[in-house]
Design a protein that fits this description.
This protein has helices at 3-11, 13-20, 27-36, 54-60, 71-80, 118-131, 161-181, 184-188, 208-217; strands at residues 41-46, 61-68, 85-88, 102-107, 132-143, 191-195, 201-205, 220-227, 241-248. By secondary structure, it is of the alpha/beta class. The radius of gyration is 18 Å and the shape is globular.
Length: 250
């Protein structure tokens, strides 16, 4: 499936409804936003989807702009928040924004991994650096190429649901490990995989080791890396993705 196939998924009513139903920040996001984002900043929320991050980011921003390459997602956000700005654009070609426009760019929920070529990813990182002010912040996440296990979600569970969720996590971990170990991306610490999510999508996967030279080539330095299951899980092999906080250095 090409990137157009990915976009087709994000345009579908079912997937738009799924993202509209997601609310609240992940603990990793809460941690990084609180630590690195300053109140009164001009913030670009890339891959805004159904607006899960919109309430938190717009609350601290002087100027908030949500952007997505799915016109359906943008339309849904405009309907939800008519007083906020939402732009339909591709993260690899953000000509709609001038140089040095934003204090911070956030690309959450592994949105950058939808880009299906190394060239496209490099263009995206270059565009993000271009629209950031000097020493601007870039916070994003990327799927973990070396994940081998699924951590059971026990919060709010009680009684029989606890052993059931543990058993389900074990089964998911076995499937995840088999799929991962059979993938070239696992052994190379990066690559492109076919993810069963939303009926099948193509995603880039990576590790902090392979992300570092990519962001440095675009003029960023990494300030902090956080496990996607922060603060409950510390093992890299159980991280579904990693969050990165970066600073523009050039």
């Amino acid at each position: 499936m090409s990137i157009d196939g990915n976009l087709q998924k994000y345009q579908s009513d079912a997937v738009v409804a799924y993202y509209l139903g997601l609310t609240g920040l992940q603990p990793a996001e809460e941690h990084l936003f609180l630590r690195w984002l300053k109140e009164g900043s001009d913030i670009l929320d890339l891959g805004v989807g159904g607006g899960r991050t919109t309430p938190a980011l717009s609350a601290i921003a002087r100027r908030y702009v949500g952007a997505d390459y799915s016109a359906a997602m943008v339309a849904a956000c405009r309907q939800q928040w008519p007083d906020l700005a939402f732009v339909h654009c591709d993260a690899t070609t953000m000509a709609c924004f001038e140089d040095k426009t934003f204090d911070a760019v956030v690309f959450p929920f592994n949105g950058i991994d939808v880009i299906r070529s190394d060239e496209g990813r490099a263009k995206c990182l270059g565009e993000i650096a271009r629209v950031l002010k000097p020493e601007g912040l870039f916070i994003f996440s990327s799927h973990n190429a070396r994940v081998l296990g699924h951590w059971p979600q026990l919060q709010g569970a009680s009684g029989y649901r606890i052993p059931w969720r543990i058993a389900r996590a074990v089964l998911k971990s076995a499937s995840l490990a088999l799929r991962g170990l059979a993938s070239d991306a696992f052994w190379q610490h990066e690559g492109y995989i076919h993810d069963p999510v939303h009926g099948g999508m193509d995603h880039y996967v990576s590790t902090p080791h392979t992300i570092k030279p990519q962001v440095e080539a675009a003029g960023f330095s990494i300030l902090e890396v956080v496990n996607g299951h922060f603060p409950v899980v510390s093992s890299p092999s159980l991280a579904p993705w990693f969050y990165y906080a970066c600073k523009r250095t050039t």
